[in-house]
Structures are given as C-alpha cells and as structure tokens.
Design brief:
By secondary structure, this protein is of the alpha/beta class. The chain has 9 helices and 7 strands, in the order E-H-E-H-E-E-H-E-H-H-E-H-H-H-H-E. It starts with 14 loop residues before the first strand and ends in a 27-residue tail after the last strand.
C-alpha cells in the first residue's frame, strides 16, 4: 500500500494522519519503517488507550480520539492521509471523502484501502445477494458499503482532487486472508484465551461472518478497493478537475484491477 501510493518516495518526518487507526498497527509501521510522524485517530477511547500501550517509547506516533466525519484538524494539516477499512463505518460517505481531502496539504497524498460492494448501478444485487449484503452490514454494524466507482466519484466531487482518483481492485490478493484469519485463531489462540470462555464464544461467533465475507468477496459481491488521490493546489467547488499541475506520485488512469 505504501509503494502503490508512492509514499516510499517521501522523506522521514512526513506528517501522516491515520484515519480510523484502531489499535495503531499501521501507524506504528509507518513511523518505525518509514520514519513518518504519524497521528492516529479513532472514535474509540478504548482503542486509543490500547494503541498507546502497544506503542514503544520514542516512536514518533501519537493517538487521539477524533471523529472522521468531522475532523478537528484545520485545512491542509498533513502531508499524507491514510485509512484502512474505516469507510464502511461512515454513515455519510460524501462527508467522509471531503474530510479526508480537506486536511491534506496542497500536493499531499491520500491513500485508502476499504471493503466495497459491487457497483449495483451497473449490475443490481440479485435475489440472494441482497440478504447476504444486509447480513454483512448487520454483523459488522456498518451503515453501508460504497462501491469502488462510487467512492471514487465522491472523492472527485469534493473539488479537492487533482486530476483523477487512482483506484485498484485488490480482491484477488486479499482473498486468502479471510480463511487465514480463522486459521490464526486456531494456531495462535493466545489472543482469545486470555479472555477465557467469553473470548472463546466471541471468537467462534465471528467464524460464520468471516466465511460469509469470504463467499461474498469470492463471488464478486464484495471487492477490496484501493484509492489514491492528490490534493489539488487550486481547490474547485465543483466536480471539474482542479487546475493545478498533475503530480507524478500516484495520479494515473483509473484501474479496476491490478
């Protein structure tokens, strides 16, 4: 994801906002392996506390409670905005898209990976796909999934994007991770064992949902989408392309597959 978005070309000290950081796994990698100055935000105080506990002293990472639907940072605060699998939690995808781009500095890079559904404007969900999708939304407590095409359009509609949003479909590459998630719970049970019976029950309850996710991604109902966008130097208030010079870091033609 770092290489695909061109972030490996950036210098140490680059400021990064990790939106929906969870307990800070990717924030720590970005700081430790690339020398970035990372701020991780999540709406959960418990996740912030755990992220702080897991972060070694001296690492250039900080965590705080914040709402991705209304970030507390001023416009143009960060060189990079990074987000992994946070979008499905957002009730208004257009507001989420705008906030991601708003806090980027001109010329800054937004790189995002997310669960997406097939674009049902082109191919409507059929009789079995509708209940499966609703079950996934209910199980994960998500309001909705975007499509790759739909969220790309929302990003461009913010008026902050230079050129086109670069997209890719990484479903094939990420497909093995669903069954591996179950396998890791078997061969590395320490994670749930420390919570005793309740940890075991919660882990077992996840298995049917994970299998349903594997089915949905394998059948093409869901897609693992990648997004990369450059913050324009001249901001428009329409869906027209901003007039700034195109960056060579990640802007390219839209891709639906890798």
């Amino acid at each position: 994801m770092v290489r695909w978005g061109g972030l490996d070309r950036l210098s140490p000290g680059t400021t990064v906002l990790d939106v929906g950081c969870g307990i800070g796994g990717s924030s720590r990698i970005l700081a430790q392996d690339y020398g970035f100055a990372v701020t991780g935000i999540t709406i959960s105080p418990q996740q912030v506390k755990r992220a702080q506990e897991l972060t070694p002293a001296g690492l250039n990472v900080q965590f705080q409670v914040d709402d991705a639907m209304g970030l507390s940072f001023p416009d143009g605060s960060f060189d990079v905005v990074w987000s992994i699998e946070a979008g499905p939690h957002m009730p208004d995808k257009a507001i989420f898209a705008r906030e991601l781009m708003r806090v980027l500095k001109p010329g800054g890079i937004m790189v995002l990976a997310d669960w997406n559904q097939r674009d049902d404007r082109q191919q409507p969900l059929n009789f079995w796909e509708k209940p499966v999708m609703q079950q996934l939304l209910d199980q994960w407590s998500h309001p909705a999934f975007s499509s790759i095409e739909g969220f790309s359009e929302l990003l461009e509609a913010t008026g902050f994007v230079e050129g086109e949003v670069k997209t890719a479909d990484w479903t094939e590459q990420t497909l093995p991770s669903w069954l591996d998630t179950i396998w890791q719970g078997i061969v590395r049970p320490q994670g749930w064992m420390k919570y005793g019976v309740s940890g075991f029950i919660k882990s077992v309850r996840e298995v049917p949902t994970i299998l349903l996710m594997r089915l949905s991604f394998g059948a093409g109902l869901c897609r693992f989408g990648m997004f990369c966008a450059i913050r324009a130097k001249v901001v428009t208030r329409s869906t027209e392309t901003a007039s700034a010079t195109t960056s060579d870091l990640c802007v390219g033609r839209s891709l639906n597959s890798v």
